[in-house]
Amino acid sequence: MARLRDTAFFILLLLLSLIFIAPILIVIINSFKLKFSIATEPFILPTAQTFTGVSNYIEGLNKTSFLSAFGWSLFITVFSVLAIVVFTSMTAWYIVRVKTVFTSILYYALVFSMIVPFQMVMFTMSKTANVLGLDNPFGIILIYLGFGAGLATFMFTGFVKSVPLGIEEAATIDGCNPLQTYFKIVFPILKPTTITVAILNAMWIWNDYLLPYLVIGNDYKTIPIAIQYLKGGYGSVDMGAMMAMLVLSIIPVVVFYLFCQKYIIKGVAAGAVKG
Q1: Number of independent structural domains in the chain
Q2: Where are the alpha helices (DSSP H) in 114-138?
Q3: Residue 87 pLDDT > 90, yes or no?
Q4: How far is CA 94 from CA 136, 143, 164, 172, in A?
Q5: Is residue 23 part of a domain?
Q6: In terms of residue numbers, what domain contains 194?
Q7: pTM
Q8: Residue 37 to residue 48: CA distance in whole angstroms
Q9: Residue 26 lies in a domain
Q10: Nearest of 245, 139, 247, 268 to residue 198 by alpha carbon
Q11: What gap in Å lies between CA 248 and CA 61, rounded to an integer?
């Protein structure tokens, strides 16, 4: 009976996996087909008549300035994730170790920020970014830090609570100041949660369309914005080039996810300890 249940559960998970993977496979298949056959036969494998080789990829690269968009996306993603990881982990450590009214208010304010929809603040935020001169690839890093701080601090706080205080006290006795204690003792212990936070935020920032579109617009196109410009007049879309660019855009984040995915469950579980 138990074996039958396990088999049924395995089949269910397999079907769910196929459902989740199917859209990616469809995009990959259609990236090698003529754009007219994509519209009429989107679920059929390329044939000798519809197969285009890498012409869709070449055309997409020429039309979108993909390499430039890739560079801006990489820059914004890397430094935004780095800022989120460093500053929110330090904030979480301060909140846990310093018990005051201020740290309690700060913690609940960050947690509350997670439930505020982006659509409620996007116009005010874009205007504020313009006034403060944040409408550039450097300024948007600060904006991503603000939007990503809530969840990241929440996860780090749960993990820091499980770190023995005695380790930090021993470091202080050995002559470490607070910054040395954090970066030499505490931060290495936070590795599982750090990688989890990095993965979640990297996937979000890399694929984000709305925030870069509102803040930096056409001056510094990221990959989602560049792909969107494959749309022509009167609603025409070069589906072949778009599918090809979508494939290229998901490769980096998929590779990053597969490289780090073993830490995700461990980090999420660790962040729930003593929450």
Answers
A1: 1
A2: 118-131
A3: yes
A4: 30, 22, 15, 15
A5: no
A6: 31-40+51-271
A7: 0.83
A8: 12
A9: no
A10: 268
A11: 10
